[in-house]
Amino acid sequence: MEKLEMIREYSKLLKLNYLKTNVDKILETAAVKDMSYQDMLLSILKGEISLKDKRAQEKRLKDAGFPVIKKIENFDFNFQKSITKKQVNRLLEMDWIDRMHNLIFLGPPGVGKTHLAISIGYKAVEDGYKVSFVSMDKLMHFLKTKEISRISKGKVNKILSSNLVIIDELGYLPITREEANLFFQLITALHEQASLIITSNKGFEEWAELMGDAALTTAILDRIAYRCELFNTSGKSFRLEHRESIF
């Protein structure tokens, strides 16, 4: 077996994927630049770390479950003036996740709540945090079926092990008393263990009617709002204002 093939084979056994894939390029670069043995080894190790970081980020992004990718660079602060770029940039520093703070975006449909939530979540993934995104209706399905569905149980376990949980569209669909209780149990389990981002079209005063139990709603809000930044977004729907016509 040739030496290059042996290097590739040993790299495969040791799971040195960067070296296995780039051994020819590494040797060629080392020769052209007249690199020392130490510099060549250092470049290999840096390549391995970079590849592992990239694959870890790709896995975190896949596990996050974003329906689409939204970035803050594409958010129109001129259209939605209820939140400033300075405030968002402060949130993108992510220290609030380390301190177990929550973010709540309230407002009517189309004002950018989900865009903001996904953008912040995407940046958290890039920064190494485990993120889970789930709409309220899907969350209820997962919670109700986790004992009989392997997929639901896996999703709930990912949520419980996340650093940041994004719950989108709370209040758009009615929920039963059973679902409200399951939601309370989840919020209790996540309290002081993970940060939350919640988007809702209903104000806090309407949550009691949504949950069907004032005492339960108070307990939920007590846990969510203990450490929380609240943003009341307002205005017209961005989608309706920028709709594309067939004609």
From TrEMBL:
InterPro entries: AAA+_ATPase, ClpA/B, DNAC/IstB-like, IstB, IstB_ATP-bd, P-loop_NTPase. Gene3D superfamilies: P-loop containing nucleotide triphosphate hydrolases. GO terms for biological process: DNA replication. It holds the Pfam family IstB_IS21. Residues 99-232 form the AAA+ ATPase domain. One of its GO terms (molecular function) is ATP binding. Keywords: ATP-binding, Nucleotide-binding. Belongs to the IS21/IS1162 putative ATP-binding protein family. This is Chromosomal replication initiator protein DnaA. It comes from Clostridium oryzae. The gene is dnaA_1.
